[in-house]
Design a protein that fits this description.
Number of domains: 2
Shape: elongated
Mean pLDDT: 92
CATH class of the largest domain: Alpha Beta
Number of strands: 6
Strand content: 5-15%
Radius of gyration: 28 Å
CATH superfamily of the largest domain: Ribosomal protein L4/L1
Low-confidence stretches: 212-216
Number of helices: 6
Helix content: 25-40%
């Protein structure tokens, strides 16, 4: 069993919670995490960079002068790629960089990322977080008290506008609901923080470890 520390908003450790690593995939699969990070970064690319070929630029298609007898190089139309103002020979076009992973793979990658943070001592549970109104200063003080001032992703059970507005201006601080949490968000920040309701909801959704078969 793995122990995850529990802190209160004042930065005091009040206890620990336990989780079976088998429920988080058993081991950290680095290749799967790499695949997930590449996918999320690739899907964030717009791919809208584009240049024009010779059929897209303005200009006549007439041959500039006859092929022979002028003493000049043999050239074609003014829109040819080798001429100034002409189109590109191999132009960029709209590119789709999107990659996909199955739902099962994305879920396992998320669980493996959580497991990696727990193993490195970078995950914790924040118990008793109450934000009644958007206030950045006390929210930042809480993050500083629990050692998450250098970057963290705070996971909520459900959307909370007051918490989101309190943390959106703090550098390297992401506010996510448990349903939106993914491997990329977890790995790109130093600390992984769960509120107590979010942690309990996470455990409820994790698969139970399969018992060893008799005689296997």
């Amino acid at each position: 069993m793995l122990d995850v520390p529990v802190y209160n908003p004042k930065g005091e450790q009040t206890g620990t919670v336990q989780v079976d690593p088998a429920r988080l995939g058993g081991r950290v699969r680095t290749k799967l995490l790499h695949q997930a990070v590449v996918m999320y970064e690739a899907n964030a690319r717009q791919g809208t960079a584009a240049t024009k070929n010779k059929s897209m630029v303005a200009g006549s298609t007439r041959k500039l002068y006859r092929q022979k007898g002028t003493g000049n190089a043999r050239v074609g139309q003014i829109r040819a790629p080798q001429r100034r103002g002409g189109g590109r020979a191999f132009p960029k076009g709209n590119t789709v960089f999107a990659r996909t992973m199955t739902k099962k793979m994305r879920r396992l990658a998320r669980d493996n990322a959580i497991l990696a943070k727990i193993n490195s001592g970078s995950a914790l549970v924040l118990d008793g977080l109450t934000v009644s109104a958007p206030k950045t200063k006390p929210f930042a003080a809480t993050l500083n008290a629990i050692g998450a001032d250098r970057g963290c992703v705070l996971t909520l059970e459900q959307s909370n506008e007051a918490v989101y507005k309190s943390g959106r201006n703090i550098p390297k601080t992401d506010i996510r609901t448990l349903a939106d949490l993914n491997a990329y968000d977890i790995l790109r920040r130093r600390k992984l923080i769960f509120t107590r309701p979010a942690w309990d909801h996470l455990l409820d959704g994790l698969p139970q470890p399969q018992s060893a078969k008799v005689g296997a």
